[in-house]
Amino acid sequence: MSTKGGRNSSWSRLKPANQDIFEEMGLRSKGDKQLLDYKTQERFYNKIVERYMLFAADARRGDELNRKLARLNISQENGNRDPAQPVPNPADLTNSKADTNELDAITMGMRKLREGIVASKRIDDFSIQAYIFCILDEVLKAIAHDNYFLFWKVKRGMDGYKAKIMEFAGEEMKLHALKSIGKTYLSIDLDSLEQLTDSNWTTLTKVYNVGWQLEGTKVVIRKPKPR
């Protein structure tokens, strides 16, 4: 059937855009209901895994994947770069941004999937499989970003066997936490310090030889210089 002007109606229809499923899916907490459907959850999960595997395969070798993840270290952002380190190559900065954007998209996809699974009250083998993959991503993200707060949070939520496996990075994460706290704070609450380092005060003083002073429930790291 012809439309006004003599054109066939099929020619007047716009071809639907090939929309990225990562953009198409929304957060359940923001009102999106697409991921309440079990089949949609499974299709989206497969896309997340596929995208992560492509990201990893692009590295080709294990050391290259480590280098791509190391680019995501936020400790050198916002002008906090160590002056002793060489100025990064502009090409590396471009690659770093691309890697960060890709992992951010994957991480957001996992968050959307988790919210959908929880909201749909799904409890089966698929939900377990999806959560294991998401937990592994949280661990990798914590290590890549030197995020000791996230690292200990994930570790405390693991069972004994998985928490034991995470200990391979625990020592480095603990030392990074101590260095960061020492440079950032004049004093800190004892409970917060023990939580951020996953160590009690006795261990910190005897094993790690911190020279800080405990005054009641407050740890004095350094005192302000008199003016």
TrEMBL record:
It comes from the Eukaryota. InterPro entries: CSN8_PSD8_EIF3K (IPR033464). Residues 75-96 are annotated as: Disordered. Residues 139-223 form the CSN8/PSMD8/EIF3K domain. Pfam families: CSN8_PSD8_EIF3K. This is CSN8/PSMD8/EIF3K domain-containing protein.
